[in-house]
Write a structure and sequence with these properties.
The complex is a heterodimer of chains A (305) and B (265). By secondary structure, chain A is mainly α. Chain A has a domain of 167 residues: MetI-like fold. Chain A contains twelve helices and two strands; from the N terminus they run H-H-E-E-H-H-H-H-H-H-H-H-H-H. In chain A, strand 1 and strand 2 form a beta hairpin. In chain A, helix 8 packs across helix 10 and helix 9 packs across helix 10. With 265 residues, chain B is an all-alpha fold. Chain B folds into two domains: 92 residues, no CATH class; 161 residues, MetI-like (MetI-like fold, Orthogonal Bundle), CATH 1.10.3720. Chain B is built from eleven helices and no strands. Chain B is globular. At the A-B interface, helix 2, helix 4, helix 5, helix 6 and helix 8 of A face helix 1, helix 3, helix 4, helix 5 and helix 6 of B.
Chain lengths: 305, 265
């Protein structure tokens, strides 16, 4: 959805308009672009400046002097290596599960329900229904549904599918469960947008040419819906790497599941260690940009950006 | 033949299970807004309407809801105006910096919230700005902007430029063309962009937490309460917002479906 909408092919302007309108374009673009410069670009620069600061010479708590000190970067990449690895590990797993759950669901809504527009729209509304209710409360709902003495775990214990003294909350599995749940709509919507446009005559053509269903899916459906898969996986993976609610002790995680976001929050808001928090954020951003760049290049769709 | 029929049932069944998975926590949250709990709302203690009738008795709940509504409304208005202008420029005009503009709209969506939250907080901190309503609204406009552009842009692309040309041929001035032709045709897109933007702002926690200072928004109150147990009144507020939004969306869809059927006749 989001990424496809930025493709350059969308441009449709007539020649006469193009010449006379540079002032109009400027008036339309400038306020929004200045806003993004001020409140997106400058904060990132501010973050990098802060990450290079050193503790104040006066030794006051939470005070730092401008400097060019890279020691915060060395400090956070060694001290927080487990959290960094965990964040990306959890994000890979949750993105994979979200894709496995979302693709068939999006196919069902976008292709099978196409002859019934009202049912199709209403089912799609159920997919975005989670957006209407606080995601913190939805996560707390899972926390209570899957707590140690919950009906679900007790039932699983009674049929010997779950160990007597085994708990679920606070484990990596619980965090991945919550992350998958919370980001499924971000995966399903772009997939649905791609699948809804899929020309069914192409599938018929493939089966007329004796392709079995699996071959049709691999050679026709999947390549045609690849833009949806790419934007869905990016819209899921990126926010998950920075999430810290699911992994937090008060929600589904424990101190053993903390992710990058938990450390940034602790260093920024509790320890007032602004250089460390900023350096860790910058590391997260850099890794994401590299991964996304490689991913988009390998899937051969650079023009999406 | 029989196995083929069974095979066709696999996908609907899978989808129903996926939808149930998505809806379980919503149903749970609504059900527990009727729980006759005393302090923490973890165990079912019987049905009551009291939490719905006396929702504001719990300190902090209604104040934070009011804050979230005001912040959401202001951020939505600003983001929708700025974003609609950019969307029109991107679709209707040819200019050299197009890919730069697209990239600067894409990047905020590709940045984890915790990075944006910390970055904005670092900016406000370095500027010596005090955190409050203004810093929350400024941050919310920033992350809503890209989503407004994407949503409105999709609508601008469906507009036929011929309609505007026709108006110009009939001696309408540019302002008349915009307000009488372009704006009414764009309105459905603008409304869905505004709704999306409000929903994003209303439910935002991470960026708000870094930039709110002493101001409590509804998600912030829930997060802070989570350590000790969230009161049922929070479930009441969330359920009420959910039911209102859900009824509006479903109603709009059924109404537009009925209209389409009537037009088809």
């Amino acid at each position: 959805m989001a990424f496809a909408a930025f493709s350059p092919s969308a441009a449709k302007a007539t020649g006469s308009q193009a010449k006379s309108s540079s002032r109009v374009v400027l008036a339309l673009l400038l306020p929004g672009m200045l806003y993004l410069g001020m409140f997106f670009l400058i904060p990132l620069v501010s973050l990098i400046i802060t990450s290079l600061e050193t503790p104040s010479a006066t030794g006051a708590f939470g005070m730092y002097d401008y400097a060019f000190d890279v020691s915060s970067y060395i400090d956070v990449t060694t001290r927080y290596l487990p959290q960094i690895l965990r964040s990306f590990g959890y994000a890979f797993l949750a993105t994979f599960f979200a894709l496995v759950i979302s693709y068939p669901l999006a196919y069902f809504i976008g292709v099978r329900l196409r002859p019934r527009p009202l049912i199709q729209k209403l089912t799609l509304t159920l997919v975005i229904a989670p957006f209407f209710i606080s995601f913190l409360l939805r996560t707390i709902a899972w926390k209570q549904l899957l707590s140690d003495d919950s009906a679900v775990l007790n039932f699983l214990r009674s049929i010997h599918l779950w160990g007597e003294h085994q708990y679920f909350l606070g484990t990596p599995a619980a965090v991945v469960w919550g992350l998958t749940y919370n980001f499924i709509p971000f995966m399903t919507l772009p997939l649905y947008t791609s699948l809804e446009r899929l020309d069914l005559r192409l599938l018929e053509a493939a089966s007329d040419l004796y392709a079995n269903p699996l071959a049709t899916f691999r050679k026709v459906t999947l390549p045609l819906t690849l833009p949806g898969v790419i934007s869905g996986t990016l819209l899921t993976f990126i926010p998950i790497t920075g999430d810290y609610v699911n992994a937090s002790r008060d929600f589904l995680g424990s101190s053993k599941t903390s992710m990058i976001g938990n450390m940034v929050e602790a260093d920024f808001l509790q320890n007032a260690d602004y250089p460390a928090a900023s350096a860790l954020s910058a590391v997260l951003m850099a890794v994401i940009l590299v991964l996304v760049g490689v991913y988009v290049k390998r899937t051969g769709t650079e023009d999406l950006l | 033949m029989k196995s083929l029929k069974l095979g066709r049932l696999v996908l609907p069944l899978y989808s129903v299970i996926a939808l149930v998975y998505l809806l379980i926590p919503i149903v749970y949250t609504i059900v527990f807004s009727f729980n006759n709990s005393t302090r923490s709302n973890t165990v079912w203690q019987g049905f009551t309407l009291n939490k719905w009738l006396h929702v504001c008795d719990r300190p902090g709940i209604c104040e934070s809801l009011g804050n979230s509504l005001i912040i959401g409304a202001v951020a939505t208005i600003v983001a929708t105006i700025l974003g609609t202008a950019i969307a029109i420029a991107l679709v209707r005009y040819q200019f050299r910096a197009r890919s730069l503009v697209s990239l600067s709209l894409f990047l905020p969506m590709a940045t984890p919230e915790v990075v944006m939250g910390a970055g904005l907080a670092a900016l406000f901190f370095n500027m010596g700005a005090e955190q409050g309503y203004l810093t929350i609204i400024l941050s919310h406009v920033m992350f809503c902007l890209s989503f407004v552009v994407v949503t409105v842009k999709a609508r601008v692309q469906t507009l036929d430029p011929v309609l505007e040309e026709a108006a110009r041929d009939l001696y309408a001035n540019p302002a008349q063309v915009f307000w009488r032709i372009t704006f009414p045709l764009l309105l459905p897109g603008i409304i869905s962009a505004a709704l999306l933007s409000f929903a994003l702002s209303f439910d935002d926690f991470i960026i708000t937490y870094f930039n709110s200072g002493p101001i409590d928004t509804f998600p912030k109150v829930v997060y802070i309460a989570a350590a000790k147990g969230v009161p049922a009144e929070a479930n009441v507020v969330a359920s009420a917002v959910f039911l209102l939004a859900f009824v509006i969306v479903i109603g709009t869809q059924v109404a537009s479906n009925l209209r389409a059927k009537r037009l088809a006749k």
